[in-house]
Known about the structure:
By secondary structure, the chain is of the alpha+beta class. It has an eight-stranded antiparallel β-sheet, covered by helices on one side. A six-stranded mixed β-sheet has the order 2-3-1-4-5-6, sandwiched between helices. Strand 4, helix 4 (111-122) and strand 5 (126-132) form a beta-alpha-beta unit.
Amino acid sequence: YPVESIRNFSIIAHVDHGKSTLADRLLEITGTIAKTDRNKQVLDKLQVERERGITVKAQSASLFYNYKGVNYLLNLIDTPGHVDFSYEVSRSLSACQGVLLVVDANEGIQAQTVANFYLAFEAQLAIIPVINKIDLKNADPERVEKQIEKLFDIPVSECIRISAKQGTNIEKVLEKVIEKIPPPQFNTTDPLKALVFDSTFDHYRGVIANIAIFGGEIEKGHKIVSAHTNKRYEVNEVGILTPNEQPTHKLYAGQVGYLIAGMKEVTEAQIGDTLFMYKQPVEPLPGFKSAKPMVFAGMYPVDQTEYNNLKSALERLTLNDSSVTVHRDSSLALGAGWRLGFLGLLHMEVFNQRLEQEYNTSVILTAPTVPYKAVLSSAKLIKEYRNSEITIINPAQFPDKHSVSEYLEPTVLGTIVTPQEYIGKIIVLCQDRRAIQKEMLYIDEHRVMLKYLFPLNEIVVDFYDALKSLSSGYASDKAYATGKFLCERLKDTIPRQLFEIAIQAAIGKKIIARETLKAYRKNVVAKCYGGDITRRMKLLKRQAEGKRLMRKIGNVEVPRDAFIRVLKRQ
Ligand code: GTP
């Protein structure tokens, strides 16, 4: 395929607007996968993606399509829609020249549509708006097209109306991809320049790097060098993703594919790295802005003997998801562990689930916190930290308030798109979360886009749920209400013990709420009469199984997901 017949594109959208379903149809219509009823979100390969029905990792696929007698190679990169994963979106976009911006014909433009549009716009990519779900009863494509024109300045005539579910107008999408998205402007005769835009670890084959070739060619046997580590490798295999790995003779400028080159250490394939030919160094491509973690939590093995296993699982998974930061940490109650930084709460939950499902580990995750900064006033502390401002990612390390002149907290600019009848309630909710309004714009007669500056801590755990339910009945003194809530939730979450437990919430030394967990009266085996030994063994086994999931903190057994459950105010 000459470079002129290659198109590299991504599908971007708000969550659930139908990216993965559209990707399925594109794979089918180009014959990449057989057409059956079973093709549901084929690119969502991970178990967590299938269970949650969301895309977490961007996945690539090469499609072949004949248009007006010319054979085209179309490289499609499916991207996640949830805000926590926008890091993946911008990473994928660097390998593309254009995007399909999918918008639900019923819901219209949503917050993440706006954010993703700007990512593509700033990267100067061709943007093709696709109005999806026109088969829905309440679909109003005309309204959505007007929103697109108003907010993004793209003429109504540029929009394609489709139903990804029913397969309506999918050919039109492919035609537009070929006509509107420019081919990559790279030269096969230049020296090799390959961008590592993703990488995964395969238990059998080592590191598999997803690469986009910005210049030259690469094939088996070539000696290449990583600009990041300066290490030399011999290429074992190159190929394209259809969507599974399919080896090819070579990869050349403009193509997107994968590479296996004997990288054994998980740290060797840095995302954002540039690969070049041995003895032909090139100017490395600009790497990626490193993702900034915004939610921190402690992670500990349930059983300390599992520490090393968990360590290697963490190393492997962070290679696949480099947006997670890892620092060693330890706690009196939980032993040796780590403090991990995530992009958001969903990101944290998904990472935890992947650790358990893909690496068969069992971990304790502590309550999520956001990073704070403290401006120090104590000369002693300034000397100790060699800085007058420190970042605190661990609540246990909060300096005493008498040595601090000011605390700073992270804020985020949030976009909310809502039907106008909810505006009043949403404004109350935002004010309750200490947010400052920045913008209010009618995107059509009935819908409003609000922009607010939020303290991150106020929205990180449950804002989205609160927004959905629009329940604004919080007590005016939040500390007492929160303390009471946490104590009650802990009381429900911690199983009764053989002794009474006092659960207290405190600010400094002041107790603001208290609940009592009554002692557990009956022994599990007490209810079996006499000598039914099998029933007795079964119950004891069940009890032992239950205990495996817990961890003793002091004398109290706390279920390991209690930390996260108590923080969800549902
Ligand atoms: P994430 O991967 O979570 O970001 O979502 P996504 O944008 O990939 O959406 P997905 O393709 O998973 O579709 C979300 C839901 O919308 C699924 O239940 C689909 O069956 C449904 N859906 C997708 N396209 C259409 C369509 O054209 N019509 C109708 N009626 N439903 C659709």
